[in-house]
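Hi support team,

I'm filing this because I wasn't sure whether my run with zinc ion finished correctly. The job status page said complete, but I'd like someone to confirm that the output block is well-formed before I use it downstream. Pasting the exact inputs I used:
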Amino acid sequence: MTINFIETAFWSVLTFLNHGLLNLSTWQHVLAALVLTHITIASVTIYLHRHQAHRSLDLHWVPAHFFRLWLWMTTGMLTKEWVAIHRKHHAKCETPDDPHSPQTRGIKTVFWRGAELYAAETHNEETMQRYGHNTPNDWVERCVYTAYPWQGLGLMLIIDIALFGAIGLSIWAVQMIWIPVTAAGVINGIGHYWGYRNFESPDASTNISPWGLLIGGEELHNNHHTYPTSGEYCPYRQRS
Ligand SMILES: [Zn+2]
Ligand SMILES: [Zn+2]
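And here is everything the job wrote out:
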């Protein structure tokens, strides 16, 4: 009886790990990973970058809270820290005070260790004080996101395994490296080092790709440094 129960439980767990709740095919898993990482990209570019750091668009509180929750579960980044570091990057661009300029720190350092540069700058109290103003400081920010910075990532891991089974671990790993690679490495590194320029901005910013789809328009980084508060990155758009 006991052996039967253990055997049944064992095979049930194994079947669950094989399929998860959704029981998707391989291609559906790839698609799911792309959708999940794109939600993270949207959270960074719409909420952190354009809404919070540059105030270039307003957001209803519902999507704003969703983006905060999603960022807590997929990146562990705090709004105030991201915003402060990014505003300082614009203010001190390509100088030794720029938190992540490949012109002063070397492209290899920013590309491969961009996430470390970001993490180090979060401990710079002066940066937080000077550039982190007007960011969320409500109960959920203080008592959940700031108090439990890594628990959201654990929650995402549990959700991924529940939905996708054991392959959810790989999908979670892709989610975890997405922002360190695309934002801290590619945009902050390549976007100030290699590519083409539409505008002669005083910094070394470049556009990486003529299409703004892959990483939410952030690949048009030279356009952005030229018009930081513009929600419209189109190079042909004339400002009145
Ligand atoms: Zn930049
Ligand atoms: Zn910016």
